[in-house]
């Protein structure tokens, strides 16, 4: 589904990704782990098409399409969706309007019409309930006065409503207490589907107790230096990242 090959990315003149290669198949959940500053967020941002990243070498393809040739909106329409690590506040814009606008943009790209209001309300109520959120949440301005946990839930809510093909979640666990993390993890698990892949960026293993990945990749200094199954995450938890770095340098 997604193929990243020998990706080199420069941010403000310094090379951050230094030949990163990664393949993600439909139906799989992949976790990208690694020390701070390794380039994890850069990877998901480049796939999503955020500004400020210069690809100097390599390729990204999504179902055979050249992602690097696509504008950020085209990528979103193709189903490449990145949640926000530190979601921004959008004063005055109600959450529910943003969700509906995003869903209708997606439906338009699929040749469907606008979602009928009753159908939308049914869908949104069901998803809000599944995230153990209160419906009053929908009437609040996007992220205005949201707690950290509410922002994270909102991020998963967006994913549940928009049903992306590749859902990229960056540090979805940061700042969450255990109960909120379980809700968020349940939401992510309910996103699992045969025709969808999930890319989880996480610094800590904790989240992976609840979302068991098919593959775990260790990103160090701009490259994936080791890949394995869920057991690798546990090994990283007990041994840290240094040994992987030493092993890969040897
Ligand atoms: P990670 O998510 O693994 O912690 P990032 O991808 O956020 O790492 O960052 C990788 C490196 O790129 C870091 O050294 C960081 O300081 C640098 N970097 C990231 N974004 C920018 C930016 N917008 N401007 C300058 N440097 C950046
Ligand atoms: Mg190279
Ligand atoms: Mg990061």
Automatic annotation (TrEMBL):
Top-level lineage group: Bacteria
CDD domains tied to this protein: ABC_FeS_Assembly
Residue ranges annotated for the ABC transporter domain, each copy included: 2-246
Coiled coil start-end: none
Keyword Iron annotated: no
UniProt cross-references to SUPFAM superfamilies, sorted A to Z: P-loop containing nucleoside triphosphate hydrolases
Pfam families the record matches: ABC_tran
Record PROSITE patterns: ABC_TRANSPORTER_1, ABC_TRANSPORTER_2
Keywords of the record: ATP-binding, Nucleotide-binding
SMART domains referenced in this protein's UniProt entry, alphabetically: AAA
The family this protein is said to belong to: Belongs to the ABC transporter superfamily. Ycf16 family.
Name used for this protein in its record: Fe-S cluster assembly ATPase SufC
Gene giving rise to this polypeptide: sufC
């Amino acid at each position: 589904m997604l193929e990243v090959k020998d990706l080199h990315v420069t941010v403000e003149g310094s090379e951050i990704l230094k030949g990163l290669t990664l393949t993600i198949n439909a139906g799989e959940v992949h976790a990208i782990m690694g020390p701070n500053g390794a380039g994890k967020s850069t990877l998901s941002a480049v796939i999503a098409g955020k500004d400020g990243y210069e690809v100097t070498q390599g390729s990204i393809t999504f179902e055979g399409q050249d992602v690097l040739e696509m504008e950020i909106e085209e990528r979103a329409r193709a189903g490449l969706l990145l949640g926000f690590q530190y979601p921004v506040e959008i004063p005055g814009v109600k959450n529910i309007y943003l969700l509906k606008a995003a869903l209708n943009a997606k439906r338009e790209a699929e040749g469907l019409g606008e979602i009928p209001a009753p159908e939308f309300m049914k869908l949104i109520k069901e998803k809000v309930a599944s995230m153990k959120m209160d419906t009053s949440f929908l009437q609040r301005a996007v992220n205005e006065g949201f707690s950290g946990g509410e922002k994270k839930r909102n991020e998963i809510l967006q994913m549940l409503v928009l049903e992306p093909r590749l859902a990229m979640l960056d540090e979805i666990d940061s700042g969450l207490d255990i109960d909120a993390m379980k809700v968020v993890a349940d939401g992510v698990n309910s996103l699992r589907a045969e025709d969808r892949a999930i890319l989880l960026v996480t610094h800590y293993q904790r989240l992976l107790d609840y979302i068991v990945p098919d593959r775990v990749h260790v990103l160090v200094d701009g490259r994936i230096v080791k890949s394995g199954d869920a057991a690798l995450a546990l090994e990283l938890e007990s041994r840290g990242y240094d040994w992987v770095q030493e092993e890969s340098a040897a």
